[in-house]
Amino acid sequence: MKRDLATITLTEVQSDHYRLNETGSKPSSTVAETFLLICFGTIALSAIATFLTKEFHKKKISDCVNSKLTKIPCPNCQYFSKSSYLRCAVQPKLTMTNEATDCSDFSPTSKS
User: Fold this and answer.
1) DSSP per-residue string spanning 22-90
2) CA distance 46 to 40
3) Residues sharing a CB contact under 8 Å with residue 94, sequence separation 6 or more, in sequence order
4) Alpha carbon distance 105, 101 (integer Å)
5) Rounded to 5 degrees, what are φ and ψ at 73?
6) Torsion angle of alpha carbons 34, 39, 45, 47, nearest 10°?
């Protein structure tokens, strides 16, 4: 039952079009899905940037603290002990402070 193109009406074309849309695939993304994707992407990138910034500052602070602690000679002194009650038998108030860098009682530990 072939019909001539000239005899096809507008309603028949529209009904065929609706039938194709029902069985065919839907558009891949809508405006709302695109907007949500952009929002979640922005949130994820800002969370990653915040995390990396905090890690950078932590590293910078720990490097600063470590550089100051390496100047303190207390752990290499023979009077220094690992006891939490009395760190140094000679100068307990100066132990592990910045003033300890010029400690007059510093005596290096023997390596034997």
Assistant:
1) HHSPPPS--HHHHHHHHHHHHHHHHHHHHHHHHHHHHHHHHHHHHHHHHH--GGGBTTB---SS-SBSS
2) 10
3) 88, 100, 103
4) 11
5) -85, 0
6) -150
Nearest of 110, 111, 106 to residue 80 by alpha carbon: 106
Query: pLDDT tens digits for the chain (112 residues)?
Result: 555 665 666 666 666 555 655 555 555 568 888 899 999 999 999 999 999 999 999 988 887 777 666 677 788 888 888 787 888 888 888 878 878 878 888 888 776 5
